[in-house]
Amino acid sequence: MEKLPKIGVPVVIGLVILLVIITKSAITIDSGEAGVLYKTFGGGVVTDEPPLGEGFHLVAPWNKVYVYEVRRQELFEKMKVLSSNGLDIQLDASAWYKPRYNDVGKLHQEIGEDYLQRILLPTIRSAARSVVGRYTPEQLYSSKRDAIQSEIFEETKKIIKDQYIELDEILVRDVTLPNTIKEAIERKLKQEQESLEYEFRLVTATKEAEKVRIEAQGKADANKILSASLTDKILQDKGIDATIELSKSPNSKVIVVGSGESGLPLILGNN
């Protein structure tokens, strides 16, 4: 085996060193991520430039890159909170959040990679306790879930607005009350529903009775007016008209015998 020329040894060593430097310097940022550059000899965390975007980057081997996920993420949390009358309530909620892209460097410098535990979670818990404490268990169980969801979101967003975090939404997924309280609320709601149904039936029956009374009164008034307008002369004329019409019938033979007490003709016989 032939020995390498003397000039070849330094070249090989140089290539190895170069390969190590490139390996240490190569950084790949995946989709949905951003890189925060830390310059060891250049002032620390870079905050006055955009973060490293997706793709391949070469950085000096003595510098560091901290990778943050910047796509929207979801946080699930179960919390024990107190209602306005001091009862324990379990709240299941989730938050949609992400780091503010252009401020990832400031987020890393001022808060750190565990910003979720340091900032977001404590803020959500504090806001949830504050909001839920304004409502009774009955309100939380029935009609106020959307309201507390909105209020927790607004309070949390207000607190973290200067913390380089974007909060998109907070969802209250479940409100769990003690079983005894839940059963009592359900009984009360059932009784209220039954009471409303009874009141509805009562109002309906009252309206129907009033309708019948008005119709009967109308008929009575009509009959009274009709009776007052009928004289003996009108009745006699109506009787004569009816007799004439009857005499015209092809199926009848009319024989006028005389007249009754009213003076109307008497009609006898038919086919």
From TrEMBL:
Return the Pfam families for the record: Band_7 (PF01145)
SUPFAM superfamilies in alphabetical order: Band 7/SPFH domain
Where is it chiefly localized? membrane
> One GO CC annotation, please?
membrane
TM segment ranges: 7-27
Q: Where is the protein localized?
A: Membrane
Q: How does it sit in the membrane?
A: Single-pass membrane protein
Q: Which UniProt keywords apply?
A: Membrane, Transmembrane, Transmembrane helix
Q: Which domain of life is it from?
A: Bacteria
Q: Which residues form the Band domain?
A: 25-189
Decide whether keyword Transmembrane is in the record. yes
Cross-referenced InterPro entries: Band_7, Band_7/SPFH_dom_sf, Prohibitin
What is this protein's name?
Peptidase
